[in-house]
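Hey,

The postdoc asked me to send both predictions to you directly instead of through the lab channel. I've kept everything plain text so nothing gets mangled by the mail client. Protein one:
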Amino acid sequence: MNYLAVSIIIGLLILVHELGHFIAARAVGVSVEVFSIGFGPALWKKRVRGTEYRLSLVPLGGYVLPAVKDEHEYFLIPISRRIIFSMGGPMANLALIILLFGALNIVQTGFSPAGVLFQPFIQSADLIQRIFIAFINLFAKPGSISGIVGILHDGGRFIGGDGANAVRLAIIISANLAIFNLLPLPVLDGGKILFCILEKISIRLRPLFVPIMVVGWLLIIGLMIYATVMDVGRLISYS
């Protein structure tokens, strides 16, 4: 049952991430073709003001598709707007951890202005710093990388039927999701932002966008497979 709770938490956090992209797109005037809750075939969809809203079969996370037909139309979007669009997802996850820290403080110590208005920012900054250091250390110890299998297993044990622990886990995963997506790697939001900056320096780099994104996807898929294999190996060794 705890594994189901972790799956729901991950799905909701990914949805918050994509909702951040959607809000950012709306804020800067980037047209959105599809905003889907979940993945896979659409169970329900409705088009409103040029955007198709979907409820899809696999209820984990979601995605946002800008209204562009090809890379040429994508590059017609001003660089500043593309950067804000890419920043929307990570910023939504960071905003969420501040809100969750505030809620957790109220539950643990009662309501206080400091516990709601100030302390969550300090707690968030401390957590982000520790996660950033942990990401750097992963390059020295790649065997410690964990994928979805490890997150479900360890997260399920961490929750242990405790609602406060479920909130703590959501905070940790949301912060990791934000920091990971801000890494300057192809496909990730940070990689797209970096490419926008490089494009600003030299427009001749535009033709490299699609090949770099393809390589990025292959690297991410390879990393996911590697992390899953490591997770399974650790679980087998524990049993």
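Protein two:
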Amino acid sequence: MALLEISDLSKSFRAPDGTTHEVVRVPEFRLDASTQLALAGPSGSGKTTFLHLIAGILPADAGRIVLDDREVTALPEADRDRLRAGALGYIFQTFNLLQGFTALENVLLGMSFGPGPDPARAEALLKRVGLGERLHHRPRQLSTGQQQRVAVARALANRPKLVLADEPTGNLDAANAGDVLKLIRETCAENGAALLLVSHDRDVLAGFEHRASLAELNRAAAPGNLTPA
């Protein structure tokens, strides 16, 4: 069953010289519930923009995005925010943790935009990602890999149906990257969440049964173009 369906999606930006550059043009795309898909593309190819459009962070110029039977592109901003808080988890490359708050508080704050803080679940998630002894550490007291683990826990806090991961291993060394990627995939599977991950790292992409490139999305004639590589 399709969790995410996209049709005729486009987004352009105006350059300083006044020219318009189309960054995303996706005729058709779908992602089924619980599916894990890796999307490849070099820096600047529009991968992050694509995720931001799905999340409702950016408005589309044209097209239709339906997530969990709700049309994201037809919702006013406040409703997009509520849908994102409940149905989506987002793992940012730069973590986006609040530096003045502990690991536990960062996860609880993420919950406050959804059904509400649940200290027991927040603590359980942090223990699941290996931070049971770091609940009350602030980001600056954590390693880069540990900060990304907090971001993973926060993304799953509201039991999302879809997790978006934007270059989640981009700031990690090879050892941490492998551990965090495994963690993301395992915790999404355990929580029944679909995963759409973007990366330019060949090693990351190679581990996914389902993978595609942004170029393939942009010329896709049917969802069948996004079958296992």
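Summary for protein two, as requested: Strands lie at 2-14, 20-32, 36-40, 62-67, 70-71, 88-91, 162-166, 194-199, 210-213.

Thanks,
C.
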